[in-house]
Amino acid sequence: MITLPPRNQTQPYTNNNFTMTKFHVVFISTPGIGNLVPLVEFAQLLGNHDRRFHSTILIINMSQRPIVNTYIQSRAATCTNIRFLHLPAVDPPSPDQYQSSMGYISLLIQNHKTHVKSALTNLMSSESDEFNSGRVAGLFVDMFCTSMIDVANELDIPCYLFFASPATFLSFMLHLPTLDAQIPIEFGDSDTELSIPGFANSVPPLVLPTAVLNKKGDAYSWYLSHARRYTETKGIVVNTFEELEPHALSSLAMSLLPRVYPIGPVLDLNGPAQWHDPNRYESVMRWLDNQPTSSVVLLCFGSMGSLSGPQVREIAFGLERAGFQFIWALRDPPKSQLDLPSDPASVDDILPNGFLERTCKLGLIFGLVPQAKILAHPAIGGFVSHCGWNSILESLWYGVPIATWPIYAEQQMNAFEMVKELGLAIEIRLDYREGSDLVLAEEVERSIKHLMNSDDVVRARVKEMREKSRMVLLENGSSYQALGALTEKLVPKI
Ligand code: UDP
Which UniProt keywords apply (predicted)? Predict the structure, then answer.
């Protein structure tokens, strides 16, 4: 049984003395920063765009992700039209039920179905209040929460997919069942490049997500199972915009799928500055204030990214030789399959002898950094990134070019898109796989020098995209219009 927080208002929602009908939408996300943050921002955007919409976000707790709770606590304090509801804990999947973290998370989410049904039933049966009109206009599930489509169907609630990755990756997922049938061997063993509708170029199998490169693994089965269910939804909201991914979006629009709504970029520009050590934030900003414009390179590998000791040392030598100022988010590998990387207790043992002394005027090394705030600073001139989609959107928003260093999830495909499809990034690697690849110091040095070159054509294209990423959100911009079309569809037809 789920207890709703006490209601603090039973009056109808009014504006200028006119009573407005309220629409309640409910969201559920995978418990990870890269999934949850854009979903929360989208809920906020929906309410800002049309004040009739109020949101409840159902939270799945995962003990290995305390960072998610810290984020929710801080975000709950600033959200006006969003309520967060923690679902009761369930027994975690037992080790014999899964092989991969994808398997674990998909099962954990699936095990919450009864609680989600009970939460939705409660919301629909309780009297109307500030948030709740007694009806749920839509349930938004994210890319790995497809088991909740069953719950929406049982309760006759329209179900939508919220997709926090690019339209190219959505296109790949929708095409995966076809590829699975067409190519009976491992994709990595096939010597032909793949034709995927959302990509203008053929795609080398080596940039597919690691999970997809092992068809015998449970992660592959889960990817297929999630992908198959996307078409059961009433619409797919993608955190992207027409001007960024025109080819992928037009190919999706031409297919017989649920309608795709590119409403992005939705970004949390305050980022972890809000939910991490304020002292760290202050010291980074003070240091940046003293650097010349576009002189500093940021290296950050996502909320789940870490590199081996030998790779860290190659980066260190490469950075030193490149000679640019730097901020480096350096993290220790996770202790177990389900854990996240941690901030290193000490970097002395990881870095080459004397590196810290030699570079003390050149750069800063931290664990997690307030990435969005750092990218916003005029001193930042380039970004060595793992190519998570939120990071890509943040860098485009601030016009900072990326050098690609993908590590996990769909990042190799994102890197391929940015370099080969869109010409918006510089290639360090497209198909890096931690543990079986090593980027040498000379490559790091060369790439950083290329990235920081102020005359580079990629830099000019990124600056153009910066303007477009802002225009699309303005009234009559493409994302604004897509959001308008979505709200029309969400409004229940009486
Ligand atoms: N992030 C951050 N500091 C870090 C690592 C990550 O602020 O040290 C933020 C980053 O700004 C982005 C999010 O965490 O908003 C990561 O999302 P993304 O999709 O880029 O990658 P993921 O972590 O999901 O792989």
Answer: Glycosyltransferase, Transferase
Q: Is the pTM of this model over 0.90?
A: yes
> Which of 6-15, 57-66, 225-234, 469-478 bottoms out in mean pLDDT, i.e. has the lowest?
6-15
- 282 burial class (0-12, 13-18, 19+ CB within 10 angstroms)? exposed
Q: Which residues contact 479 (CB under 8 A, 6 or more apart)?
A: 241, 242, 262, 263, 264, 265, 472, 473
Would you say residue 134 has pLDDT above 90?
no
C-alpha triplet 10, 13, 14: angle, nearest 5° = 130
- Give the Å distance between the CA of 390 and the centre of ligand 1: 7
How large is the C-alpha radius of gyration of the chain? 23
Residue 470: C-alpha distances to residues 213, 267, 349, 398, 479 (Å): 36, 11, 43, 10, 10
Q: Is 410 in the pocket of ligand 1 (CB under 6 A)?
A: no
Tell me the CATH architecture of domain 13-264+473-490.
3-Layer(aba) Sandwich (3.40)
Of 35, 105, 303, best ligand 1 pocket probe by most atoms within 8 Å of the beta carbon = 303
Containing H/E element for 139?
strand 136-142
Average pLDDT over residues 281-291: 94
Q: How far is CA 343 from the centre of its chain?
A: 21
Task: Give percent of the chain with pLDDT exceeding 70.
Answer: 93
For the chain, helix (H) and strand (E) counts, in that order, are: 17, 15
> Does 265 sit behind a cis peptide bond, omega within 30 degrees of 0 on the bond before it?
yes
> Count of CB atoms within 10 A of residue 220's CB?
23
95 C-alpha to ligand 1 centroid (Å): 28
- Tokens 């967060």 sit on residue: 84
In this structure, what are the phi and psi dihedrals at residue 137, rounded to the nearest 5 degrees?
A: -75, -20
Tell me the per-residue pLDDT of 323-364, one tens digit each, with 9 for 90 and over: 999 999 999 998 888 888 988 888 888 999 999 999 999 999
Q: Which CATH architecture has domain 273-470?
A: 3-Layer(aba) Sandwich (3.40)
Residue nearest to ligand 1 atom 8, measured at CA: 368
Q: Is the CB of 391 under 6 A from ligand 1?
A: yes
Structural domain boundaries in the chain: 13-264+473-490, 273-470
Distance (angstroms) between ligand 1 centre and the Cα of 394 equals 10
Distance (angstroms) between ligand 1 centre and the Cα of 71 equals 12
